[in-house]
Amino acid sequence: DSTNNDEVTNFPVIEMRCVNDRANAGGSEIVNAELACTVATIEEYHDKDDYISGDILQGCETPAKCSAKDSLNREGTIKKRSFKALVVTPQFHPYFSKGVWYFRHVLNHRSPLLRKSVRRRIVMLKGWPADLNTPEKIRACFSDTIEAVHIALRGKSNLTADEVFKTHIYRPSDCYIGWSFATMAHVSKINKRRFRRHYNRFDIDVDQTLLHDIVP
């Protein structure tokens, strides 16, 4: 690679999207919709650390006899799950109706998705290292402690005034670098029987079966 190790480029961006289940039905908007995004990580702690307590070790005579569901593994370490906030923009939608909501996370020095060594290098260079700007190298920058990214959407139905809540979980294998989402919106002619005065008008519908479809 002939790229200078001190050169920088634009920060990579992870894009996600969501759609209203009733996007093609009128009057089903979600008011004051808000996203809460967190990263679940799993880190190993050795048995010499203070984190291990008698309660955790109870029922596990030796590390070799512990099952996969036990906290203590064969190497004498325990796995601790923790959660960190994932900053996305935009995180708030005042009137989520027919459109598709795209939200993005920037892989910068504050991103919990990156290895500590990569974040330190970003701080030092004040930008994304140009020699790490390929799909393979960007993926290698992800922390190996990541278990999942949890997305939670909360808002209020404009139809019933009830609270709307939905969650989704992304696994590391769900991340495709260098790809983009397929278009979900398509033009459809308005029902002539319902809209007799607008015979030649067209409307935009959302094909929800394409929510997770991607293209190179």
Plain-language structure description:
With 216 residues, the protein is mainly beta. The protein contains three helices and 13 strands. Strands 3, 4, 5, 8 and 9 form a five-stranded antiparallel beta sheet that branches. Strands 1-7 form a two-stranded antiparallel ribbon. It has helices at residues 54-57, 116-125, 135-140, and strands at 8-9, 13-19, 30-46, 77-85, 92-96, 100-106, 128-129, 146-157, 163-170, 180-181, 185-189, 202-206, 214-215.
Note the main sheet. Answer: 5 strands, antiparallel
Low-confidence stretches: 48-70
**Proportion of residues in extended strands:** 35-45%
Per the principal axes of the C-alpha atoms, what is the gross shape? globular
Compact overview of the structure:
The protein is built from three helices and 13 strands, in the order βββαβββαβαββββββ.
List strands and helices in order, with pairings.
Elements: E1 8-9, E2 13-19, E3 30-46, H1 54-57, E4 77-85, E5 92-96, E6 100-106, H2 116-125, E7 128-129, H3 135-140, E8 146-157, E9 163-170, E10 180-181, E11 185-189, E12 202-206, E13 214-215
Antiparallel strand pairs: 1-7, 2-6, 3-4, 3-5, 3-8, 8-9, 10-13, 11-12
Give the tags.
mainly beta, 5-stranded antiparallel beta sheet, 13 strands, 216 residues, two-stranded antiparallel sheet
